[in-house]
Amino acid sequence: MASHRLWPGGRREIMTPATERYSREDAMDVGLQMVFSSYGWSSVSDEQVWDEELRLARLAADLGFDVLWSVEHHFNDYSFCPDNLQLMSHLAAVCPDVGLGTAAVILPWHDPLRVAEQVSVLDHLSRGRLRLGMGRGLARREFEAFRGTMDESRERFDEAAEMILRGLRTGFMEGDGPFYRQPRTEIRPRPTRSFDGRVYAVASSDDSVCRRQG
User: Fold this and answer.
1) Which CATH superfamily is domain 28-212 in?
2) CB 3.0 to 4.6 Å from 126: which of 92, 133, 170, 186, for a disulfide?
3) pTM metric for this prediction
4) pLDDT tens digits, residue range 117-157?
5) Phi-psi region of 160 (alpha: psi -120 to 50; beta: other; left: phi over 0)
6) 3-state secondary structure (DSSP) of residue 72
């Protein structure tokens, strides 16, 4: 006979004798990747694309998905979500029971201190639901528009990621590397929750994957 289990947040799960053998930790983590693409269709406006993605996000949350993810891309039909941290701040309010993930914040395009501040704000607003994915970028046209170069992207990513993660752990940002010289500065609002187990390196090249694996 089936029974019901109520998870935190009000999600109800139908339990059968087979599924009752497994704990929540054994379950697959299911998420929705939000892409924001118009696929080059001239009949579809950017506003329509965004409205549809937000509708799907709310639907996924209502259906019990574990997490909503969003890319960061700029300037083209392929994908146009230039600020996924801002997007997740909105979703934190309209979808209060689902995880929120960045896939990813492209660190070479941002100041590390500002990223740490934005992450801290979002984690406060979402009560610790943020999953922080970071990446180094893959589109040359985006680097050129930001007046940067892909040749430095790996080194910039490594330096910025270390600063940000240390800052979220200690509450202070500082750095003396070749790309980011940051005097010791306190992050406010102060980070109050550990990001252990909530940080991801988003990679597509074989080399980047191998480097993240150590």
Assistant:
1) Luciferase-like domain (3.20.20.30)
2) 92
3) 0.84
4) 999 999 999 999 999 999 999 899 999 999 999 999 999 99
5) alpha
6) coil
